[in-house]
Amino acid sequence: MKIAVIAANGRAGKLITDEAVKRKHEVTAIVRHDNQTKASHVLQKDLYDLSAKDLAEFDIVVDAFGVWDPAKMDLHDSSLLHLADCLSGTNVKLFVVGGAGSLYVDSDHKKQLKDTADFPKEAKPVAEGMGKALDHLKERGDVQWVYVSPAASFIADGAKTDSYTITDNEYTENQAGESKISYQDYASGFVDAIEADKYNQVQISIYQDD
């Protein structure tokens, strides 16, 4: 597939880019600065400057953009809105590196992880910002999208185990009672989801089996 990865130099973006390259996809890193990935194709451009024309040639556009400054939480929503507008009415599918806070903790889908008593206070602004962006994305019937949440514990320096499961938008724990995933396993599962070519206009999640 022809895959573009926005914010490819970021921690998750780089791992997804390199995993897709390893699997022989034609990958373009979209970055603001010098390319730090294994992608041989590069588009140096700010996310907000991207146009429908820039993205029209791809099968998949990966949005790995993220922001953690509490004063800039609105960028989650505005950046995703911009990308959705660029891809509106096309067959290009948008895969979003999402958050765990929006996973449902009940079968009725009334309560999300970010609204539970034990959810870390320091993570709440990001979860709220990303949750708002997802809510607006769900309203877009004109865009093909897949929102990929990690497990509750997203481990930056965790090992690659290749022992993970792709599931739906409900919070899930493994047999040890843990909800965790390393960045490396998340990247592998993310590309698995792209290759499966069966998800559309849904939120999915990836967790480590053991």
From TrEMBL:
A Pfam family it matches: NAD_binding_10
Gene3D superfamilies assigned: NAD(P)-binding Rossmann-like Domain
First and last residue of the signal peptide: none
Cited SUPFAM superfamilies: NAD(P)-binding Rossmann-fold domains
Span of domain NAD(P)-binding: 8-195
Entries under InterPro entries matching the protein: NAD(P)-bd_dom (IPR016040), NAD(P)-bd_dom_sf (IPR036291), Polyketide_Oxido-like (IPR051606)
PANTHER family, per database record: FLAVIN REDUCTASE (NADPH) (PTHR43355:SF2)
Protein name, as recorded: NAD(P)H-binding protein
